[in-house]
Amino acid sequence: MKKTKTTLKDIALATGYSINTISRALRDKDDIALSSREHIKSVAQELGYIHNMSARSLRLGYTNTIAVILSDISNPHFGILMKEIEERAREKGYFTYLIHTNEDVDMEYNAINYARNINVDGIILCPTQKNTDNIQYLNDCGIPFVLIGRRFTDIKTNYVICNDHLGGYQAASYLLDQGHRDVLVLTALQSIYSAKERLNGFRDAFKERGIDLDKDLIKEVSVTTQDCGDVLDSALKKKQFTAIFAFSDLIAWA
């Protein structure tokens, strides 16, 4: 027979206390003697009682949960990012939900709605950047959110990003210092803020030294890398280059 869920009534029967006393003890109310609270908690644990978080969240108005919506969890970068987010959240008493969008705007919309349905206290989002519709939707919903890794220039949001322009500039400077002039640039769609900034930084390093960056060697590839091999094969047949600048580690490995 399937074991039924332990209730406050079960704990009351096992301890002799009223259901109201059991409830207050489990919530650590100080009008219940410490010894009674400890005894009630011990019995609750023995019986396998699980506190109803949904009821608690309705009563308190918060859930101590954060939804982290990422664009591509196959990318090791996002794995490292999620680990750090989860650790920092746990230090503050929060749990995290990870939701994957695969760079799909409809999946992103569904992820946002799922996060709302489970009443998370906030959302951390790496946006697909196909358009701003989902961001505007988030603004209209009123749920706290922060963009991570990417931002929009035409809509006001909170965000945490790297200095992608500097990263592109430093990468180009290194290659130029090594004597490379013909560089194949594998960039992501320029609608993605970080891709655009890295390419701009790369270009600026060439421009600063008075060297033309061959436009025919700049190739847009999917951030999910499905077309990376074909683009590279095509470039090898048409152009000569001595180095490759890749938008991400995942593209470089592909």
Element layout with pairings:
Blueprint (H helix, E strand, L loop, with lengths): L7 H8 L3 H8 L7 H14 L5 H8 L4 E6 L5 H16 L3 E6 L4 H13 L4 E4 L7 H9 L3 E4 L10 E2 L3 H14 L5 E5 L5 H16 L9 E3 L7 H11 L4 E4 L2 H5 L1
Parallel strand pairs: 1-2, 1-3, 3-4, 4-5, 6-7, 6-8
Mean pLDDT: 88
The secondary structure category is alpha/beta
Would you identify the regions where 5 or more consecutive residues have pLDDT less than 50?
Answer: none
**Order of strands in the sheet with the most strands?**
2-1-3-4-5
Largest sheet: 5 strands, parallel
Report the principal-axis shape. Answer: elongated
Beta-strand portion reads: 5-15%
- Count of helix runs: 11
Helix share, percent: 40-55%
Radius of gyration: 26 Å
Brief digest:
The chain is α/β, with parallel strands linked by helices and 254 residues long. It has 11 helices and 8 strands.
Question: Explain this structure to me?
Answer:
- The protein is α/β, with parallel strands linked by helices and 254 residues long.
- The chain has helices at residues 8-15, 19-26, 34-47, 53-60, 76-91, 105-117, 133-141, 164-177, 193-208, 228-238, 249-253; strands at residues 65-70, 95-100, 122-125, 145-148, 159-160, 183-187, 218-220, 243-246.
- The strands form 2 sheets. The protein has a 5-stranded parallel β-sheet, with helices on both faces. It has a 3-stranded parallel β-sheet with strand order 7-6-8, sandwiched between helices.
List keywords for this structure.
254 residues; alpha/beta; elongated
